[in-house]
Design brief:
Blueprint (H helix, E strand, L loop, with lengths): L2 H5 L6 E3 L8 H10 L5 E3 L8 H10 L5 E3 L24 H6 L2 E3 L1 H22 L16
Parallel strand pairs: 1-2, 2-3
Antiparallel strand pairs: 3-4
Length: 142
C-alpha cells in the first residue's frame, strides 16, 4: 500500500514509516489532510521530509499525541530539540544528537513555536528582510 492509501483509511490511528527513503512532503501532506484519526506517527530516518510538512501535519492533526522524527535532518536545526523528550541514557552521542520524539504537550508547544516562526518568516518577507531561523519564541525579527 502507498501512504496515500494508508491516509484514506478511516480508522488509522498509528502508522510507522521508519526508514522509508522515498517518503516526501507530499505523503505527509496527504496524512495531514486525510488521516483524521491519526494519534501516533513514526517518521524516523525519513530524510526527505521538510519542517514545513511536519508543521502542516501538526496544524491539521490536532489529535496527534506522539511523533517520532529521530534522524530526520530538518528536525536537527536549532530550536526544535527543546520540544523533544530526553534521549535514553543508553544511547551514544550520535544517537542522542539525532533523537527527536515529541509527545503530549510538547507536540502542542512545537506547533506553537513553528506557528510563530512562520509568522516571523512572513513578516521578514513583507519587510524585504532575510529570514533567519532562531531557537527562541519571540515574534520580533531581530
Amino acid at each position: 500500500m502507498s501512504v496515500f492509501e494508508f491516509a484514506s483509511l478511516k480508522g488509522l490511528r498509528r502508522l510507522s514509516l521508519v526508514r522509508v527513503q522515498k517518503l516526501t512532503d507530499i505523503a505527509i501532506f496527504a496524512l495531514a489532510e486525510h488521516a483524521t484519526c491519526l494519534e501516533r506517527l513514526h517518521l524516523s530516518y525519513c530524510d526527505r521530509i521538510s519542517l514545513d510538512a511536519i508543521h502542516m501535519l501538526l496544524r491539521r492533526r490536532r489529535g496527534l499525541q506522539h511523533l517520532t522524527a529521530t534522524g530526520v535532518p530538518t528536525c536537527r536545526r536549532k530550536g526544535i530539540e527543546r520540544f523533544s523528550e530526553p534521549p535514553l541514557p543508553a544511547l551514544d552521542d550520535t544517537q542522542r544528537a539525532a533523537f527527536r520524539v515529541f509527545s503530549g504537550d510538547k507536540i502542542a508547544a512545537l506547533r506553537k513555536f513553528l506557528d510563530k516562526e512562520e509568522q516571523r518568516r512572513r513578516d521578514a518577507e513583507a519587510q524585504n528582510i532575510p529570514f533567519q531561523a532562531r531557537s527562541d519564541d519571540k515574534l520580533n525579527l531581530y
